[in-house]
Amino acid sequence: MSDTRSIDAPNEVRPFKDHGHMDVVTLGDFTLGRGVFEPGWRWSEDVKPIAGTDSCMVHHTGFCLSGQMTVRFDDGRELSVGPGDVMDIDPGHDAWTTSDEPCVLLDTGVRGYAKPA
Question: Which residues are 101's β-sheet partners?
Answer without folding.
Answer: none
